[in-house]
Amino acid sequence: MPTEVAIGIVGCAKRKRSEPCAARDLYISPLFQQALRYAETVCDATYVASALHDLVPLDRVIAPYDRTLKVYGKRLRMAWGDRVVEKLAGLHRSGTIRLLVLAGADYVEPIRAASIHRRWTVEDPLRGRSVAGRLQWLRAAMTAVLPVSAEAITPAAPT
């Protein structure tokens, strides 16, 4: 039986540092930071879904940018999803893939559509939730995985 590989994909964020840095440090919104912490805790590998760079390893240094999939038409979003899934397929060739996508619908749906022919499982636990609802879900999910106080999993303010 093939081994399942859990891959976390965290959507990029509008709020960014002003200088180039590792992708894990570039995005400074509380939602991104909590989603990243959760994905790294429960997944075998984690990446950032970037409107500009497609799929970004966490340690890859990138410069701040201003681009979102929200302004792309459906055809361009689907092409973006195809590129993300192709990159993932090249990085993870063996086993069954389970994607945990912690991002907005503009990012999740192209990834889901591109994953269908591969028979990958795509999980979207934040679907339909407000930003506050997403943060609440992530705090509860982290507490379930690592039973500690909510203060311990709330990211520190960016420096």
Low-confidence stretches: none
Using the coordinates shown, work out and report the CATH topology.
Rossmann fold
Largest sheet: 5 strands, mixed
Query: Which strand order do you get reading across the main beta sheet?
Result: 4-3-1-6-7
Subunit arrangement of the protein: single chain
Query: What value does the Rg take, in angstroms?
Result: 15 Å
Q: Give the % helix.
A: 40-55%
User: In CATH's first tier, which class applies?
Assistant: Alpha Beta
Report the end-to-end length measured between terminal Cα atoms: 46 Å
Per DSSP, the total helix count is: 6
Mean pLDDT, as a whole number? 90
List how many beta strands DSSP finds.
7
Beta-strand fraction estimate: 15-25%
The domain tally reads 1
Order of helices and strands: EEHHEEEHEHEHH
Net shape: globular
CATH architecture: 3-Layer(aba) Sandwich
Specify the structural class: alpha/beta
Write up this protein.
By secondary structure, this protein is an alpha/beta fold. It has one domain: Rossmann fold. The chain is 41% helix and 20% strand. Strands 4-3-1-6-7 form a five-stranded mixed β-sheet, with helices on both faces. The model has no long low-confidence stretch (mean pLDDT 90).
